[in-house]
Design brief:
Number of strands: 0
Low-confidence stretches: 1-5
Mean pLDDT: 89
Distance between the termini: 53 Å
Number of helices: 7
Shape: globular
Order of helices and strands: HHHHHHH
Length: 173
């Protein structure tokens, strides 16, 4: 069974479903126990982005803390790399709930690793320009029959962050 991730005419901050709790229960049982928690975390980031955009409009992005700028970066990734889809692309038109969960997990894991890196003194611009980001952006092109590539991608991402933080420690010493 395939599910479309996003229709551009729908505002993802507003739920039109009266059955969200039942849907969460279903996806937690059918896909992964963390499905609802990940969905809620993504929604929280998208909601917070909307609030932060008001500040950005008034005083500019540079007035935000690096952690808040990271939230904007992650929310953009959620919108562009996860929610948007290309209806003309054979791979990206539809995807299984398992692939949706894997993609969402990857973006949220990147966010958590990036927060950790910021705490270790890594600059946000270094995180945003990591080469692994391009692979994460293109993860929607991974075919359904090759979802094990997502595990490899996550391991590469973890290693890339470890390297980045180790390099930062050398600079600080």
């Amino acid at each position: 069974m395939s599910y479309a991730r996003h229709f551009p005419a729908i505002n993802w901050l507003k739920s039109y479903s009266l059955y969200q709790e039942k849907m969460d229960d279903y996806f937690c049982e059918a896909v992964h126990p963390q499905f609802a928690a990940h969905r809620q975390q993504a929604m929280a980031l998208l909601t917070e982005e909307q609030s932060l955009q008001e500040i950005v409009r008034l005083v500019g992005k540079d007035a935000l803390s690096p952690v808040d700028q990271l939230k904007l970066f992650t929310a953009k990734s959620l919108r562009e790399d996860f929610l948007q889809q290309n209806a003309f692309d054979d791979v990206d038109t539809y995807c299984s709930a398992q692939k949706q969960f894997a993609m969402l997990t990857m973006i949220l894991a990147f966010h958590e690793k990036a927060k950790e890196a910021l705490e270790h003194g890594v600059y946000l611009r270094e995180i945003e320009s990591m080469p692994i980001r391009q692979r994460i952006v293109r993860m929607r092109q991974i075919p359904e029959d090759k979802l094990d590539e997502m595990d490899s991608l996550r391991q590469e991402m973890t290693a890339a962050f470890q390297t980045l933080m180790q390099e930062q420690e050398v600079v600080n010493d």
